[in-house]
Each structure stands twice: as structure tokens, then as C-alpha cells.
Amino acid sequence: MLSTELEVCSSFATGPRQYDGTLYEFRTYYLKPSKMNEFLENTKKNIHLRTAHSELVGYWSVEFGGRMNKVFHIWKYDNFAHRTEVRKALAKDKEWQEQYLIPNLALIDKQESEITYLVPWCKPEKPPKEVHVLWWNESADSRAAGRHQSHEDPRVVAAVRESVNFLESQQNMLLIPMSFSPLK
Questions:
Q1: Total domains present in the chain
Q2: Measured at the alpha carbon of residue 139, what is the angle toward residues 137 and 141, in degrees to the nearest 5?
Q3: How confident is the model at residue 49, as a pLDDT?
Q4: pTM of the predicted protein model
Q5: Domain containing 67: what range?
């Protein structure tokens, strides 16, 4: 995990606010509690079958934050047509089906998918604005210390007071990157 002064390293937003068709799919799998390790082992062993079809941005297990036994991953697509092509190719890929999909489907309790776009002023690096945000911290304790420190900053307090009226929901999760995740 990385730590910077701002600690913001990636920012994504829902909605069509960009100049090209690139989109990111946020996928969350809720796993049966006794099957988490089996799922992760099979994913590590066979992720190459999936990444042969499209770019994996990152893959994490959720340490805490909401429901347990959860993995979160982000896939990049050039546009919706590209995503459709990838989904069709995966449906025809026998090796993917037999070695990954079929064995893992029985381990998954629930799936969620959200299509997101980068806001025009950012790249998957250190943007000045945020909507969906991935924060990197050296540890959970450094995250807690940073949050406590930011609550003492009058600029942060003012920004929160101004923006809270626009907040529909907020979810916090501690994500642990998998060994094969490009984004750590």
C-alpha cells in the first residue's frame, strides 16, 4: 500500500463525463463464507484466462467494511461495444468456462456490477477531485491517524459541510490487493 500526503490515488465517477468511450466496470463478488480461500486460490491460478480478454486494473479482497467474504475488482474497456465483445468471447472460451467460471460460480453468493467513467480532470493517478475514490495507506492504523488529523483541518471540515448535502451514500472498505493485482 502507498501513502501520500493527499492519499488519493484513483478517482472514478458514474455518469458520462468524459471525452472518449473508455469505461471501467467495478465488480463485487460476495462469497460463501467457507469458500473464500478456495475462490481466491482458483482466481490466482486462472486469472490469466480472464486477463487474456481485457485489462484488469485491480483486484482486492475486502478486509472489513460492510459484508465480509467479498472481493472487488476493476476492469477497463474501450467502450460498451468492447465490453460486449469481451463478454461474448468469454462465453465462447471453453478453458475459461471449465477452469474458472464453472468451479467458482458455486462459491459466489451474490454479484454486483457498476459501470463508471473517469471524470475529465483526472487519470487513474492522483486527481484533484473525487467521486469514487481508492485511498492507499501504509496500514489501517495510518488510515485512522490520517482521518483523525484531517478532521482537525478547518478546510476539510468546511468541505465536508458543503458537500454532505449532495451525498447519497458512502461506503468504506479496507481493500487488500491480491498478488496478481496490477494496482496495489
A1: 1
A2: 110
A3: 97
A4: 0.70
A5: 23-119+171-177
